[in-house]
């Protein structure tokens, strides 16, 4: 054995963290195998972990509280410090150097945590305390006696313990790594992805509610902050959870709630989500005048509207909570807030301007973390390079038009370039579909480029052209479509069994669109870092059978997404 591995030194919190993770790992394995011995181990490990993290709570307040007899511990520490080389001995070193001191027993430990730290959940009769007491009885029987376990009951107890226990620890433990790393690790071990996301969203919404209370005038500055969640992690679910809770706040009884979007398609999607999953019936004004009428009605309405209908001059003296939802960068300048109003933003992408307008980040679950947690799928960047001066080998681009049209920008809208892209996209997509099921979007510079690229693709694959959109393989989508047409195209594209597999559009139009079947994105024009982030989130959306997502870059962007 090497010298490096002869000793094992683990801190109190690390020790407790390890036991909790090990316990819930054993519980998960029991759920899969129904091996009762694993359930026995789970009870012992989880209980040991609870004991150690409760001791950590006492230690971070007063280290002497972990001793059975506090006065004796003080006395014995004085004696220890008089010994040679022990002048600076710490409190917890008593356990190593003095056999006459004992740590606090579990029952006294939980009582001290409840009373000394004023943790109501641990008070006798509390819901969490009752569950821990039941677990303690099982643990004592396992350690000291033979026993007969009701495996269903014990497994349910461990499941019921998880969220309330981690909620208390997340609030009380003064350690950043424990909160940001250990708790998510425990959650992922103990629960499937959707349950884990419920926990993440719950914490985010709790922070957003607290920030909203503090932001309300006259004491607050009206800026409740920014909630950032990667696409596919349930941003709209978090918004709905937040909406349900703020409607119950007495401080907001005189407020109208206005949810702001920047595209009509998002207005429709959000209305459907809220109406189908709550008893809230949002109003959707058809004009600026109707919006003002709703705000003047003295009713605490919930309103969903596009930001273009909002005139700050009409809102100066109205109690209004503005909730921005996935607004594109640049829309902040359209809005200023009244001295008696407040605002909060729910978004997939963070921008410095958003923080300036809405306030600090109050909850974040970003793309990198979602991929790390296996909530989203990994992203692979493929770059297809071909010299732009050779793209038009069969037809020279008119140099005069090239110069007048801005050079680089013109090339990415030119017919020769788009023809080359069409061929590469077809070949790439057909090969990809042989390996894995999925759909793809193609990002173009503008609407004219979209139509031109569509014709280039159909020229190479004429059998993809159909009169009925439901039978087409490829289509464009843009603001030139009517609202009903756009809805029909998007719904058809979202149907797993439909032929429509390739959708061409501008990044600004497709930003915020969610479709878990998309596993490939083709980028044929320069785009912003914010749009890169949104597209990466869209492509990496979780779907059964999807192993990774691919972004195919035709122009050489930097994909170190910030």
UniProtKB/TrEMBL annotation:
Report whether Acetylation shows up as a keyword of the record: no
InterPro entries hit by this protein: P-loop_NTPase, SWI2_SNF2, Type-I_R_enzyme_R_subunit
Q: Which UniProt keywords apply?
A: Restriction system
Sequence ranges assigned to domain SWI2/SNF2 ATPase in this UniProt record: 205-311
Q: Which domain of life is it from?
A: Bacteria
What the entry lists under PANTHER family is as follows:
TYPE I RESTRICTION ENZYME HINDI ENDONUCLEASE SUBUNIT (PTHR30195:SF15), TYPE I SITE-SPECIFIC DEOXYRIBONUCLEASE PROTEIN SUBUNIT M AND R (PTHR30195)
Q: What name does this protein carry?
A: SWI2/SNF2 ATPase domain-containing protein
């Amino acid at each position: 054995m090497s010298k490096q591995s002869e000793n094992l030194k683990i801190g109190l919190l690390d020790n407790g963290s390890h036991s909790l993770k090990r316990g819930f790992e054993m519980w998960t394995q029991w759920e899969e195998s129904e091996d009762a011995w694993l359930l026995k181990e789970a009870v012992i490990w989880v209980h040991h972990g609870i004991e150690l993290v409760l001791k950590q709570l006492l230690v971070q307040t007063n280290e002497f509280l972990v001793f059975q007899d506090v006065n004796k511990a003080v006395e014995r520490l004085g004696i220890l410090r008089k010994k040679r080389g022990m002048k600076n001995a710490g409190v917890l070193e008593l356990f190593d150097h003095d056999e006459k001191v004992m740590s606090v027993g579990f029952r006294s430990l939980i009582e001290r945590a409840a009373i000394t730290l004023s943790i109501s959940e641990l008070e006798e009769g509390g819901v969490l305390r009752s569950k821990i007491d039941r677990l303690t009885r099982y643990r004592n029987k396992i350690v000291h006696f033979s026993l007969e376990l009701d495996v269903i009951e014990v497994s349910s107890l461990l499941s019921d313990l998880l969220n309330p226990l981690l909620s208390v620890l997340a609030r009380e433990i003064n350690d950043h790594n424990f909160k940001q790393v250990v708790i998510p690790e425990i959650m992922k071990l103990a629960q499937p992805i959707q349950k884990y996301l419920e926990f993440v969203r719950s914490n985010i919404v709790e922070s957003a509610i607290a920030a909203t209370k503090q932001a309300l005038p006259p004491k607050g500055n009206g800026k409740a902050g920014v909630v950032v969640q990667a696409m596919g992690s349930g941003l709209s679910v978090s918004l709905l959870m937040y909406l349900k809770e703020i409607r119950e706040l007495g401080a907001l009884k005189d407020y109208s709630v206005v949810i702001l979007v920047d595209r009509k398609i998002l207005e429709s999607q959000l209305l459907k989500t809220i109406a189908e999953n709550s008893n809230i019936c949002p109003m959707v004004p058809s004009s600026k005048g109707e919006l003002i009428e709703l705000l003047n009605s003295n009713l605490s309405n919930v309103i969903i509207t596009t930001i273009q209908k909002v005139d700050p001059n009409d809102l100066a003296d109205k109690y209004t909570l503005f909730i921005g939802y996935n607004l594109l960068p640049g829309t902040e300048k359209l809005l200023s807030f009244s001295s008696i109003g407040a605002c909060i933003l729910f978004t997939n992408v963070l921008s410095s301007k958003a923080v300036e307008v809405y306030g600090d980040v109050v909850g974040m679950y970003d793309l990198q973390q979602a991929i790390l947690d296996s909530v989203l799928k990994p992203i692979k960047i493929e770059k297809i390079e071909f010299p732009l001066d050779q793209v038009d080998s069969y037809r020279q681009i008119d140099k005069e038009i090239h110069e007048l049209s801005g050079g680089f920008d013109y090339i990415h809208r030119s017919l020769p370039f788009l023809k080359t892209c069409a061929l590469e996209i077809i070949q790439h997509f057909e090969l990809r579909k042989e390996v894995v099921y999925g759909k793809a979007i193609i990002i173009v510079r503008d609407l004219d480029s979209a139509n031109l690229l569509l014709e280039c693709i159909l020229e190479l694959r004429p059998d993809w052209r159909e009169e009925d959109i439901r039978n087409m393989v490829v289509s464009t989508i843009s603001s030139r479509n009517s609202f009903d047409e756009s809805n029909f195209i998007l719904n058809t594209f979202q149907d797993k069994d439909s032929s429509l597999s390739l959708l061409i559009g501008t990044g600004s139009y497709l930003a915020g669109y969610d479709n878990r079947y998309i596993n490939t994105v083709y980028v044929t024009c320069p785009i912003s870092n914010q749009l890169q982030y949104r597209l990466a989130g869209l492509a990496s959306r979780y779907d059964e059978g999807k192993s990774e997502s691919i972004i195919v870059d035709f122009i050489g962007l930097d994909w170190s997404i910030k």
